[in-house]
Amino acid sequence: MALARKANWVGIDEVGRGPLAGPVVAAAVLIPEGVRLRGVRDSKIVPKNEREELAELIKEKCFYAYGVASVEEIDKLNILRASLLAMQRAFLELLEKYDWIKEDVRISFREDKDISLISERGVEFNMGEEKLRNVQGVLIDGKYVFSLPEDMNVACKAVVDGDAKILPIAAASIVAKTYRDEIMKELSFEHAVYGFEKNFGYATRQHLEALENYGPCSAHRQSFMRVREVIYQKCLKFEN
Prior knowledge:
Layout: E1 10-15, E2 24-30, H1 48-61, E3 63-69, H2 71-77, H3 79-97, H4 101-104, E4 116-118, E5 124-126, E6 137-141, E7 155-159, H5 162-165, H6 167-190, H7 196-199, H8 205-214, H9 225-239
Parallel strand pairs: 1-6, 6-7
Antiparallel strand pairs: 1-2, 2-3, 4-5
Helix pairs in contact: 1-6, 2-3
């Protein structure tokens, strides 16, 4: 635990913006100083078996927390705002889970003019010339940042393609992906006809055929166009 108190940044990523069903899930990961995470990279390019092994490694070696936005929240807020809500929840849960982070978290960048981050795989990622030294806060995958309470002095920086560039964000993407997959497998027991344990809510041919045959279930995002179209078609058949 003493090593972790010297950790310097939190990476946050979400998964599940594209599927037609299930929640959007985010993870926040703080990598303790001195911990090496060989092989960790963007979850989208990591094979399933390796991804699950890496997720266990990250959870064993790092500090992490999840944030989830439900299907109901996705339909009410839209998927972008729900994703930011999930990421905000992941960060607040991290602070709640390890309360010393509230005081200790620091993002320490090099003194170089061109600030770079070095991944565990030895790849150097140029962060540009922004002066980010001694910033408190988190690095978030994407274009947008979430809001935090005004009395919380934490800066949030969005990094486009951060899951492919920044190690803590890549670690968060792996942890979030494996956790969401588990949620979808659990949903498959309640809604067996849709094959959520295989398609994880994405619009595969098998999933779309089941959606057309059986209509949407409570796990489907009714604000999404493909789901609304099925509801509309079902209503037309009922009226006729």
